[in-house]
Design goal:
This protein is an alpha/beta fold and 322 residues long. It is built from twelve helices and eight strands. An eight-stranded mixed beta sheet has the order 1-2-4-3-5-6-7-8, with helices on both faces.
Length: 322
């Protein structure tokens, strides 16, 4: 009797394990519809530049020194800077690009060497872009997670970065995922289902954009359309999952005392994604930072209040040495 119960228990356990291992692989993942090669969605002023084996979508304007490189955040693209590209060009050369996995830049699904979605690889792409344009030193302008990349680049290559302008940077909330969770997400089962999960994220995309603005009713129709455009690129769902797997292990908060270069921290007074208090704290903990809090702005003050954002930038730049 006991042996029979034991056998039944083993069969149930084996069946459960089999269902967990095989079941997700049997879930159908239909191909995406209505997607196109990235170049088919490009604008007249789009440029595609291959850096470290990855084709980046780039836009540039202005000339002379200093040079500014603009880095967008998660879920965004270089279009987040469309209202400030020309004002920046009055200060020097301006370069904005789409990070791998976003915008119209390439979405690698296989690679050798560094994972192109990792923080280290994205710093190397940034440095490669500077070399491509023969820029020895630049001012990096980063929004949200783009600010994290800018800070990481300044830590690793201080000789290439003269100042930082950080818009609502994601510093205290980027801790990476636990090792066990990363192993789970990278399993064959989750890799199979990953594109479906990425597509589910898209269904909440408009809600996230609304959260990023103090007043979502003021989001221009063309801006909302530009946020949707990258989701027409081939394999965007698979690439978004690869980006998610890459994680973000670096602890920027523990290295702030090493960033002695001039820094401007800009935040909206109603940031519901990276709380305004985080940016205030960051400006206070950096050795050489100034802070600008913009009224009636959320997580993207350069989109929502571009005039006030640039006023803060012009004032900051006017105080820089040299």
């Amino acid at each position: 009797m006991k042996r029979s119960i034991w056998r039944k228990g083993l069969f149930v356990l084996a069946g459960g394990i089999t269902a967990l291992l095989v079941g997700p692989l049997l879930i159908p993942v239909p191909p995406l519809k209505g997607t196109y090669p990235a170049r088919a969605l490009a604008d007249e002023d789009s440029e595609f530049i291959r850096i470290n084996g990855v084709e980046l979508h780039v836009k540039s304007t202005g000339q002379g020194q200093p040079a500014y490189v603009l880095l967008h955040g998660f879920g965004a693209s270089l279009y987040t800077w469309q209202a400030v590209m020309q004002p920046f060009s009055r200060l020097g050369r301006v370069i904005a690009y789409d990070r791998p996995g976003f915008g119209l830049s390439e979405r690698p699904l296989a690679w050798q060497g560094l994972n192109p979605y990792s923080g280290d690889a994205q710093v190397q792409l940034l440095l490669g872009l500077l070399d491509h344009f023969s820029i020895s030193k630049a001012i990096l302008v980063g929004s949200s997670a783009g600010g994290s990349i800018a800070m990481q680049a300044a830590l690793q290559y201080p000789q290439r970065v003269s100042a930082l302008i950080l818009a609502d940077p994601a510093v205290y909330i980027h801790r990476g995922s636990p090792g066990w969770l990363h192993c789970l997400l990278a399993s064959p089962q989750m890799r199979h289902m990953g594109p479906l999960l990425a597509r589910a994220m898209l269904r909440h995309g408009s809600q996230l954009l609304g959260m990023a603005w103090h007043d979502p009713q003021l989001i221009p129709a063309d801006m909302a359309e530009k946020y949707r455009k990258p989701f027409q690129v081939e394999n965007w769902d698979k690439a978004l999952w690869e980006f998610t797997l890459a994680g973000w292990p670096i602890d920027l908060a523990g290295k702030l005392d090493e960033l002695k270069l001039p820094v401007l921290v800009v935040t909206g007074d109603d940031d519901r994604i990276v709380p305004t208090a985080h940016s205030v704290r960051l400006a206070g903990e950096l050795p050489n930072a100034s802070l600008k809090v913009i009224a009636r702005a959320g997580h993207l003050p350069h989109e929502e209040q571009p005039g006030r954002f640039m006023e803060a930038v012009f004032e900051f730049i006017s105080r820089l040495p040299g």
